[in-house]
Amino acid sequence: MKELPLAKAFMLIEPGPVTFVTTAAGKKKNIMTISWTLVMHLTPKLAFVTGPWNHSFHALMETKECVIAIPSADMSERW
Q1: Quick check: is 26 in a domain?
Q2: What is the mean pLDDT of residues 32-49?
Q3: In which element (H, E) is residue 32 found?
């Protein structure tokens, strides 16, 4: 793997790979694909958009928890 200056780290996920967001509320589990993500800052902050039209939004509002899976740089180089 090549080293990259921190100031350019955002380049690894901009404009953003397909990202998976998993949520669960009660017994209902869900996985949502996000094809647009945004780096908010060089510290680990990431934003994505969802709304009341899907289960993930309601689960996030209820539990305030999710798991975000982003492909690694090694995985991205394969494609």
Answers
A1: yes
A2: 70
A3: strand 28-34
